[in-house]
Fold:
Amino acid sequence: MTSRHTQSNPAMDSELHAALVTAGFYPQLVSDVLEDALAGYTVVSHMVHLETHIDNAEVHRHVTALVVTNETLVVLHVDDEMLDEQGAHVSATVSTETVPLVRLGSIILSYGYYQPQNYKTGDQLMDLTVTASWSGSQRADLVPATCGDPQCDADHGYQGTLPKEDMVLRVSVEADGAAKVDEARRFARALRGASVRATIDAASGVVAGSAVAPSVAR
Structure:
C-alpha cells in the first residue's frame, strides 16, 4: 500500500507560499503554522483570502487560508489585536482545523452576475460564495414572524432558517478583483471534486492513496 501521506515531499509548495507572501499578513508565521497543519500531505489546491474591515477608528485584517490535499481540507485563520493605542504591541491568534474529505457534507456555490438578462458565455462572474459543512453544527437565523397584516401587533413568535455552515467564503470583483474571484472558482471546483472522489472511494471501500496490485492468472 502506498499512502498519499509522504514526508519526503514538501507540503508547502511555491505557489501557496507566494500567495501567503502576497497577502502580506505575517506570511512567515502563517507559512510555518500551515506547514505544521499540513503534516506532510501534498497540496492539491489552495485559496488565500485577506479581509479588511474598520471598527470605529481601528482597522482590522483577517486572513483565511484554505488548502485541499488528497485526503484533507485544512482551514487556517489569523486574527491580530493591538495591545496598546500606538500599535507598538500586537498579538496574533492563528487557528487551524484539519478536516478529512470524507467528512465534508454539502458544498454550496452561489454565483452572482450583473445584468443577467444580457448574460453571454464567458461573462465575468461578479461574486462567488462558497459554503461547506462538516461538523453538523447549525446557526439559527431568526426574525420576528408576521401574519401579513401591517396593522397587526400580535406576537407571532419567530421564523427563520437553520443553515449548516462551518465555512463561508465570499469574494467579489468589487472588493477583491476579478482574478481573485476566478481563483476562488477554481478552488471551489477542486474542493468539490476532491470531496466527491473521497465519498465515492469511502463508499466502495477504497483506501485513499492505495495501490491495488493487479491479479496474476495462475
